[in-house]
Amino acid sequence: MTLQVTDIGELAAEFAVLERRIDGRPITYLDAAATSLTPRVVVDAIVDYYTNHRASVHRGVYPLIVEATELYEGARERIAAWLGSTPLETIFTANATASLNLVAHSWGRANLNSGDTVLVTELEHHSNLVPWQLICEERGASIEYIPVLDDGTLDLDAYQLLLARAPKLVCVAHVSNVLGTINPVAEITREAHAAGAIVVIDGTQAVPQIAVDLREIDADFYAWTGHKAYGPTGVGVLHGRRELLQAMPPFISGGHMIKQVFQASSTWTELPGKFEAGTSQIAEAIGLGAAVGFIQEIGIDSIRAHESALTAALLERMAEFPGLHVHGPLDPAKRGALVSFAMDGAHPHDIGEILGREGVCVRTGHHCAQPLMRRLRVGSTTRASFAIHNTTDDIDRLMHGLESVRRVLAL
Ligand SMILES: Cc1ncc(COP(=O)(O)O)c(C=O)c1O
Fold it and tell me: Among the options 136, 171, 361, 368, which is catalytic?
């Protein structure tokens, strides 16, 4: 597959599910931020593994296992090189949640102590919050919040003041899954390091849509998930700084992660295996490698340009729509390709239901960000998010659907 930027409008053909009709209507998929659709090349890579190379990895020397291992480790190498990491520092997990729990339970349990402070932002997904609540409770540490300003950006002045309290850890989302805000993670990391803190970044919403260079960001841990980046479900990634990963105790233990096992104790294998206990997500990791190949072939800058133009167009259309309020930054350059909104007099679940009848798929709910919902003084929002297959026709169908909401609810 060789795709040119000009082909982007035709990329829908790469996603088989978009050929479906539901009640005679096409699918207008505006929910990539929840989970992205899967391109054919990813399905093909998974089918190829199960059809032609089905064996375990790192468990023997016969040809089939060597092939499977090459595919699995090849995916790791591709992913690491793409983001500016190394294979040793690239750990396959089940999803972003598992990646963040790995850091909390391994690094957190070994390093957080009574009286320590962990900074998290008010816009975190529960995945980068609840694990810290649990580990802080266990270790006697406390959590402080970096506030969100009314324009949906982080209050960086408040962050400076919080850094003066010498936190041990700073946890921040690269792109907010509700507000779309692109946080200045390189700057946040630099300042955290200057204050002596370790930095954990949740890159889940960033990796599929903006260029990410882990060397430039220089965080200690960077977590993301495969199924929002055109990959399959069941695989996530944790990138970590080698010295920290080497010093950390294992999280999940059992097969593969050991060097030697004695009756009374064990020693651990080298990175990344130390954090990959049990039989790996072989097909899923191979599928994620193919997804990254798909993104690379289109080019992340082309993806960003396409999705950013759609976001700008949607924001413009929404500004003209009566009673509709957008959450988060209004400047498309400051946000990712997702727009959460409220409509006067309409509950998000009613909006989602009515849009769904027209084949328009959006996310409604609290987006696993309840502290942020409280900050916004709402219980839930409706969120439309873009992927590479979307076009302005999808925006037309969404806006038409919102007209239907007004009509059905007599607004
Ligand atoms: C910003 C962010 N972080 C973490 C997650 C959790 O991802 P997963 O459920 O794949 O672990 C999500 C998913 O919605 C997210 O949007």
Answer: 368
* Alpha-helical runs (H) found in 279-379: 282-298, 300-319, 348-357, 370-376
Task: Based on the fold, state whether residues 288 and 203 are members of the same structural domain.
Answer: yes
Smallest Cα–Cα separation from 245: which of 285, 198, 288? 198
pTM above 0.85, yes or no: yes
Rg (CA), the chain: 22
The verdict on 354 and 261 lying in the same domain is: no
Question: How many CB atoms within 10 Å of residue 102?
Answer: 26
Count the Cβ atoms, other than its own, within 10 Å of residue 238.
25
**Using one digit for the tens of pLDDT, what is the confidence trace for 165-189?**
999 999 999 999 999 999 999 999 9
253, 279, 296 - which closes a domain: 296
List, chain by chain if needed, residues with CB within 6 Å of any ligand 1 atom. 95-97, 125, 127, 173, 177, 202, 204-205, 225, 227, 236, 368
State in Å: Cα 209 to ligand 1 middle.
14
Report the nearest-CA residue for atom 7 of ligand 1. Answer: 96
Structural domain for 108, as ranges? 44-296
* CATH code of the domain containing 78: 3.40.640.10
For residue 358, the domain's CATH number is: 3.90.1150.10
pLDDT, tens digit, 9 for 90 and up, residues 38-52: 999 999 999 999 999
The values of phi and psi at residue 143, to 5°, are -110, 135
Residues 188 and 104 in one domain: yes
Residue type, 13: A
What integer pLDDT is reported at residue 8 of this predicted model?
66
- In 10 A of CB 155, how many CB atoms? 17
Structure tokens at 198: 């370790």
Residues of the chain falling short of pLDDT 70? 1-9
Tokens of 349: 């679940």
Per DSSP, 367 falls in state T
Atom of ligand 1 nearest to the CA of 368: 14
The verdict on 388 and 265 lying in the same domain is no
Report d(CA 94, CA 47) in Å as an integer: 20
Torsion of CA 199, 202, 205, 210, to 10 degrees: 30
- Number of domains the chain is built from: 2
* Helix, strand or coil, per DSSP, at residue 405: helix
Judgement on whether residues 223 and 74 belong to the same structural domain of the protein: yes
Reference 112, options 192, 186, 170; nearest CA is: 170
Residue 171 annotated to the active site? no
Q: How far is CA 268 from the centre of its chain?
A: 29
Looking at the fold, whether 212 and 246 belong to one and the same domain comes out as: yes
